[in-house]
Amino acid sequence: xxxxxxxxxxxxxxxxxxxxAGLTMTGQAQANEVEVLHxxxxxxxxxxxxxxxxxxxxxxxxxEDFAVAGGGGETAMTVLKSRAMSGNPPSAAQIKGxxxxxxxxxGLLGSLNDVAEAEDWDALLPDVVADIMQYGGEYVAVxxxxxxxxxxxxxxxxxxxxxxxxxxxxxxxxxAGEAIRAAGYIPLAHGGQAWQDATIFESVVIGSxxxxxxxxxxxxxxxxxxxxxxxxxxxxxxxxxxxxxxDGMSGRDWNIAxxxxxxxxxxxxxxxxxxKGEFTARGLTAGEDYLCAPAPGTEDVFAxxxxxxxxxxxxxEEELEAQQALARLVLxxxxxxxxxxxxxxxxxxxxxxxxxxxxxxQQSLSDFQRTAEEGGLVPSMAHxxxxxxxxxxxxxxxxxxxFNDDDMQAEEAAERLVNAAEAASF
Amino acid sequence: MKNPSKARVGHPAPRASTxxxxxxxxxxxxxxxxxxxxxxxxxxxxxxTFILSLTSSRMLPSxxxxxxxxxxxxxxxxxxxxxxxxxxxxGSLFVVICLVIGVLLAMxxxxxxxxxxxxxxxxxxxMALSFIVTGVVWKWLLNPSLGIQAMVRSWGFESFRFDWxxxxxMVIYTLVIAAVWQASGFVMALFLAGxxxxxxxxxxxxxxxxxxxxxxxxxxxxxxxRPVVFSAVMILAHIAIKSFDLVVALTGGGPGxxxxxxxxxxxxxxxxxAQIGLGSASAMLMLGGVLAILIPYLYSELRSRRHG
Lengths: 426, 308
What we know:
The structure holds two protein chains of two kinds.
Chain A: H1 2-25, E1 33-38, H2 43-58, E2 62-67, H3 74-85, E3 92-94, H4 99-105, H5 113-119, H6 121-124, H7 127-132, E4 134-135, E5 138-139, E6 141-148, E7 151-154, H8 156-162, H9 170-182, E8 186-189, H10 194-209, H11 211-219, H12 223-227, H13 229-240, H14 254-262, E9 266-270, H15 275-281, E10 291-294, E11 302-311, H16 317-330, H17 333-343, H18 359-374, E12 377-379, H19 389-404, H20 410-423
Parallel strand pairs in A: 1-2, 1-3, 8-9, 11-12
Antiparallel strand pairs in A: 3-11, 4-5, 6-11, 7-9, 7-10
Chain B: H1 4-10, H2 17-53, H3 69-76, H4 78-109, H5 116-124, H6 131-142, H7 148-154, H8 171-196, H9 200-208, H10 213-224, H11 226-242, H12 245-250, H13 262-272, H14 276-307
């Protein structure tokens, strides 16, 4: 007995020692290697991330995967913060929108200007996109894709059955909704989570008052726009959407709602183009088995949500070289095409051959180019592209509370929106 | 010099000083690391949270002090008040209903019935589940288009309504339902143990005096169970304050933020919304809530020990 105990103790301590050694080893990217924190963990996304890994390895660089599962990347951001606080950030991390600025202010991001100049990113990327990738005039991040948020998805059989066309304005949507309800379907599938409420709210604001108004309200945070009569109108339209939804929406995940459209239980859903992943996963074809159109009233506006990789400052020469190579490869056509085919989004560079993509993605890209020229390209507030996380959170609170509280009036909600934008932080 | 009497106790015979000294010091030596670790990782971090709650920290901790500004912001935050009110409603209903059901079940089981062991296991078993499981199951049961409402309607009662889960005024009570379902069996077990610990002769004496069974329970048994009630309230109250997983699984805080609790509020702000300062302030207020329950408990414990 004592012998046995002794050996098992020895084994345990040995195992402990190796684990500890392992812990200290991981997390420190070795020279010539990049460590990339991301949450591309679903089937298609993981395969797409692997493309990038293969490209890196083909050029002789190492890739250490630091994938943290969890849809919106909240877990991943928590992990990233703890790593950054302990002074050991990964070489690159999936950070997007104004958060890039926050990390930049902390002085943790490194410059990509050498790569950007060599590859001529200024000419390649639309100005709105390029601005987001820069901190203090220097490129610190590289875009992987562009999602359009203001989409309307529909099941054509249900529309036919109810005798309605794809709605192009909010009024048409409400009329169509009545007909669909009469035919025995749920007009609009929705998941009652704060970010989903905010996603459709944003589309309604654009559809009701236009892209320029949206820009003033949610990008410039102009109190007159946030609290004015036009916002009250938009809020009332937003609340009317409840009539088109079912009782069980509270807390439902977005992909379940998409499933309701696929199964013909519901007619339509307003959701970003990641919903397409659900359709393609069931083997459906865009334009035939399911329809896509800009959310009602928003055809001239493109609300974007861009995934990007931000690069942390590194001191090691070789690691820096690997990091720069990573930045270059992310924007190269091979990765952009593979990644965006898997993710349902469109490439961040508009000059690619789109023949492989489906009709929705092709329309998305042509709209992207058109709105970039006409000034209808706006950052999505609901997806953290327009305002800082704390202001966004305060706006979410108002929007979701108003949408779910039968007693709150639109005027009161508009007032609270103004407060939310002001009181957010120090 | 400081404590001569203690030193005398530790060294009964001056000659055995080395061994005796070691013996006196050994327990302290062994305990020292764990005490140090607890001090640092529990109280040290509490202190750190308090310090952070006085700063303007957003995404990462910073030490730009703003006094009690974060607390002032918290007081103006509508969502915080919803969360606090919810905790009051949820906490009080949860504790009271669990106690009532637990006591009743325990008294019924105490009537020397057959298969008591099996019944006890059935009632106690929910406690073995995680709150996440409880939350998910009740989420399905309470969903108006999937669960109880849909079932009753399919039986032909078309006007039946049970949609608390999606009603912002009623959703907090669905948390109470699920939490009571989970914890009342545990309270029953506590009381059953308490009941079994009561000296039979007192009850016999009461019965000889002609007291009826309800009267025996009310006048004799319940007063004997006071310490059990006290422990049960302590445990239930702290389950209520730390409730987080149940909300996340059952309602996700929704609809809107109607079923938010301070714990979910704190998590959302400190970790998802880059508001570490505000989150820390709310955490300190939660700590205050726990202390408000703990201090009277410790006080009464210490007092009863002195008297006993």
